[in-house]
């Protein structure tokens, strides 16, 4: 991967190999599948997140319980950790909009990512969507791998033939992509 660089007039650019683009496409697609709202389908426009919140208020109880899937629980965290009743009430009104925002960020990444890799040029808003989507992908992968603050140590204990070794390598690569994008945006 050619790291992200700033472009004159705002925005960023980079270049990805075909395999890197394919990997990002697969991972972002998995996030989209995880967070896609179950009842009404996905909202077409990020501005519709307000509508999702209003619909939750009008139609009553929504998703008041935290998800059973640990990845979804990480992507859609409780608003109140020590108060399950308040957390449920908060979730009921915010989860549809949060799902939509996360879905739209991953969709933006997919829409701006060339299928065969190559040069990418993103506006500032598109780059922000990429950051959100990359963060969600890293959170999801980190939960599945059981990544802790001692990530480097966890990874160093694995042998290259361990099935998790490649996943740890992908996790580290995603961190480098994310860091490159953050630096290019400043």
Overview of the molecule:
Helix content is 62%, strand content 8%. The chain has 186 residues and is mainly alpha-helical. It has one domain. The chain has a 3-stranded antiparallel beta sheet with strand order 1-2-3. Strand 1 and strand 2 form a beta hairpin. The two termini are 20 Å apart.
Write the layout of secondary structure elements.
Layout: E1 2-6, E2 12-16, H1 18-35, H2 49-59, H3 70-75, H4 84-112, E3 118-122, H5 124-145, H6 151-156, H7 163-185
Average pLDDT over all residues: 87
- In N-to-C order, the SSE pattern is EEHHHHEHHH
Low-confidence stretches: 40-44
Side by side, the strands of the main sheet go: 1-2-3
Would you report the number of β strands?
3
Q: What shape does the CA trace take?
A: globular
Q: What share of the residues does DSSP label as strand, in percent?
A: 5-15%
Distance between the termini: 20 Å
Number of helices: 7
Helix content: 55-70%
Taking all Cα atoms into account, the compactness measure Rg is 18 Å
For the record, the count of structural domains works out to 1
């Amino acid at each position: 991967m050619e790291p992200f660089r700033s472009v004159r007039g705002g925005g960023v650019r980079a270049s990805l190999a075909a395999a890197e683009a394919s990997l990002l496409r697969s991972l972002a697609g998995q996030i989209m599948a995880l967070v896609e709202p179950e009842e009404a389908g996905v909202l077409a426009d990020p501005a519709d997140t307000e509508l999702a919140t209003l619909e939750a208020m009008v139609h009553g109880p929504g998703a008041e319980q935290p998800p059973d899937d640990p990845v979804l629980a990480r992507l859609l965290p409780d608003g109140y950790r020590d108060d399950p009743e308040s957390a449920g009430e908060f979730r009921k009104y915010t989860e549809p909009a949060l799902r939509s925002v996360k879905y739209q960020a991953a969709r933006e990444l997919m829409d701006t990512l060339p299928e065969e890799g190559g040069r990418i040029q993103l506006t500032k808003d598109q780059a922000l969507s990429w950051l959100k989507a990359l963060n969600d992908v890293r959170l999801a992968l980190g939960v599945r791998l059981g990544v802790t603050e001692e990530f480097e140590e966890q990874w160093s204990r694995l042998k290259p033939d361990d099935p998790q070794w490649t996943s740890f390598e992908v996790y580290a690569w995603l961190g480098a992509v994310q860091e490159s994008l953050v630096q290019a945006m400043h």
